């Protein structure tokens, strides 16, 4: 199978936040306001900028830039995602538990079989920015992202309240949040599969 170059080269080179994207007059800071940023703004999650406690070390971050392509191979939009350097987290300090269950294929087959027998409609959904919804239990500090430091607070760090992509506990925190919402709406978890 042969691929044309327009489908093959989707990566945007690593950039500084203040640089412009290649072959684009759009500054990177305008691209950052995508779904993830809108989600954080909708929930009014303003990072808490504080002085770093004496024995703590802030985690770094990366900006990941991508191009979203249309079906015809042309660029639809540019996306930017802030990812924390979770590989620098220390177990017992920055996180304690990372377990997040995954549903069994037999459970999915059982749900589909019951739906078929009872002539029910099955709906599938995707929660956009799912990992950004988890509430953190641990105290996590992050360097202020380039371009987002408040005037006069450049030397401070961000104390995270919600999960970010890259945190080791992000899947667990999202699962707990999702379970809580489902249970509050009258659903029950079956004993043989924690995801159903």
Automatic annotation (TrEMBL):
Residues 50-191 form the Reverse transcriptase Ty1/copia-type domain. Pfam families: RVT_2. This is Reverse transcriptase Ty1/copia-type domain-containing protein. It comes from Mikania micrantha. The lineage of its organism: Eukaryota, Viridiplantae, Streptophyta, Embryophyta, Tracheophyta.
